[in-house]
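Hi,

I'm pasting everything inline rather than attaching a file, because the server keeps stripping attachments. The sequence lines come first, and each chain or strand is labelled.
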Amino acid sequence: MRRHPATLIVILIVLAIGLDQPDSIFGRFTQQSVTAQIRRTQRRRPPQRSAARAVDYSKFSHATKKHQESCGDCHKVPTDNWQKSRGFPDVADFPDHEACVSCHRQQFFKGARPEICTNCHRVVSPRDEARLPFRNLQSSRQFTIEFPHDKHQDVIARQHRLYRDNAQAVTFLRATFTFPEDKKPVYNNCEICHGPKTGKLEPPPGGWTDGFQPAAADVFKSAPEGHSACFNCHWKGQAPASEKCDGCHKAAAAYNAVGWSSRVSMKFRHSREQHVAECTTCHINITRAATLRGLKPDVPITACSECHNKAPSHLEISGELGQIDKNRQFVCVYCHTSDVGKRDAPASHYLIAERPQIKRQDIK
Amino acid sequence: MLHSLRRVPIILAATRALLFPAAAVCLLVTFSPLPHLLYGNAQTQNANPAEARGVIRLRVRLKTGNAQRGLARKRFFLIKGSAEANKELIQKMQQQPLVSRDCYYQTIGASKPLISWLKENDCESVYCREAEIKDVEGAGAVPEFQKAIEAGEKQFGSRDIARKWLSVNLSDEIKSGFYRQQQKLLQTFLMDAERHSQAKVISVMTDRLGTAYFTDLAPGDYLLTNIVPTEFGEKTELWNCDMKVKPGDLATEKPFQISNAREKNVKCVSEERPIPACPAK
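And the predicted assembly:
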């Protein structure tokens, strides 16, 4: 039954397109259409001089077809300055002039201050060779990173010690973010890439909600910002090796990285003693993540309710939900700042608290 | 002939004027909900698809003597279909030739200190932890590590980088051979399982307490398995458990507990076998 209207539509669409672009189908029969085509081509093709002007040579782009050759054609691995810049073999500098000049000789010698030089140099002057840091953090990003958490967790996984009858003799992986001085970590875990953040946190756009400013080490963990966490295994041999940039760097439309990730439970502290645990205890879906695309923190409320919904002394979740029942203006503050705490609590919270879900607007 | 060709554009314009609205009307009729209401549809959409998904909290316990602990950092898989439906796959898993960690490293000619280094901290590969200075210098040094450090020092001009980047100068067999061997086995079974069940196999790794969550599960029967037997002391453990996911199953309910010992609350017990002997060279 459904096939007939579908076939009819396809025929009608093809005919309609054909009629809208008659030159493509019937054009060969009409002299007029040939003239029209030439006119259109003339309209589409702007004068060559203006096209050359349109190129902004101060903005290097990997999207340019000529810039999509093999990475090693331009980038040296490692660059000569690695010892001075990084302390470990790395791509720590822009490609040398030879990489550009074969095609851009004209732009290199254009005027007193060629704009093409600003891609790499701080000051455009033959007397100043100082270059911008590589990567230039002021420029937009042109690649996304591909990282399979699942594979890496398999690789650093360990075998299991045979537990002895004497429980004291049992040793477990202490996969934590903070280690007391006397207990050095002996296993690699998530912390090899995600250590505590240090320094002062930049406020989010719009400032700190309720004036609540968390300590850096309490909120997000750091993420690798360079090759130091990668090259120690992937320098050579272990694919993708350092020369194969596109093993991890995937070309993307230019974008600016967001400096601040949103946080639902702003008051949660990673560094609190009771919260020191293996990352995957709470971030439950990380071990199945084969890509960074769409990766979320994925912390279920059950990770919190194990402790924060225990009678009699730790009924923080139920307690605050109970307060909403009495006063619809109540703001949940134990975990949240007011921007989140004034919203309706999600179904998951009511579920673990074994309370019927309610909307604030329904409370009289 | 030329006269009639001149009329073509006029005819085309008139036809176009008629056909465009006709095509638009047809598109609207086809993609609007109207046909579904008129013709009816056996597959009724769920009002709230989120309600139809389930979550399973897996807890893996291992018992030796009186001590019982969670099985940490071990990958488990959920294959669509019951154990009965995956009978052939289970048989293959049970019959797979297993090469233990120690046997693998012996076979590739790894030195005794390297095997001890791996054993000392229950590591499957050199990526498990960083080599310390005592592991690369002095009486207890691992010869493979020493060689790698010498090569690294020449390459990077720094002994410290050479130690931290030790794996870079180890042979592929040593650094990732065992992992690749395990992965090869796994991939064969996963491909078989996906082909047979016509569904993607889901996997998660247990945390340090032996707990893992399978989320966003479609209701139905599943086979919970670790596919490649886990080495535990002198034995291996292979789980093949029937698991039923009901719509709305939640992780707040009792965990799905599995173990190597039949006890209260244990829903599935592993098949325990001694580690196979390593064939002499």
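The CA atoms of residues 134 and 140 of chain B lie 7 Å apart.

If the labels don't parse on your end, tell me and I'll reformat.
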